[in-house]
Write a structure and sequence with these properties.
By secondary structure, the protein is an alpha+beta fold. The protein is built from three helices and nine strands; from the N terminus they run βαββββββββαα. The strands form three sheets. The protein has a five-stranded mixed beta sheet with strand order 2-3-4-7-8. A two-stranded antiparallel sheet has the order 1-9.
Length: 164
């Protein structure tokens, strides 16, 4: 995180002032991503644009960009994936009702405070593919692997049954 800048912020205060914040977080500092990445090199650039809704609630547009290294599940080689995501979040208290706009995600905050790193990490998780893969032509020969012989795991079972 950029030194000296707070990670937990008051979303209502920032929404009143229509504040736009930008942060850069090293991927190594995002614990929920660690198991999905080939390595923790690189960083995520996040932008948070706060605004006030007509209902009086605070909202933010969260946009992230990163190039994390993932492992291709087709050839098992690592590659840089161009991840980008953007979401609109409506901040509500724990006791509040659901959002009025179905096109906007609801984010619960206990005391009106939100963690920017947590928002950026969540958005980056949404931007990553469920199954990481290169384009088929980038995987090389291993992507077209087909066994020469058909596997028959129960071929010897018939002989065993005859012996009993």
């Amino acid at each position: 995180m950029t030194s000296g800048l707070p990670d937990r912020v008051d979303c209502a205060h920032l929404a009143d002032n229509e504040t736009v914040l930008e942060r850069v977080y090293p991927l190594a500092e995002l614990p929920r991503l660690r198991d999905l990445l080939a390595d923790a090199q690189g960083s995520v650039h996040a932008q948070f644009a706060f605004a006030k809704l007509e209902s009086g609630r605070a909202m933010a547009t969260v946009a992230v960009e990163a190039r994390p290294h993932l492992v291709c599940q087709r050839c098992l080689r690592r590659f840089a994936y161009p991840a980008a995501g953007r979401s609109e979040l409506e901040f509500v208290g724990v006791a509040d009702e659901a959002a009025a706009d179905p096109g906007r995600e609801v984010y619960e905050s206990n005391d009106g405070q939100v963690g920017l790193r947590e928002l950026a990490e969540e958005e980056l998780l949404l931007a990553l593919p469920i199954v990481a893969m290169h384009a088929p032509q980038s995987c090389g020969e291993t992507a077209n692997f087909e066994p020469d012989e058909r596997s028959r795991p129960f071929a010897g079972l018939q002989d065993l049954l005859k012996k009993t």
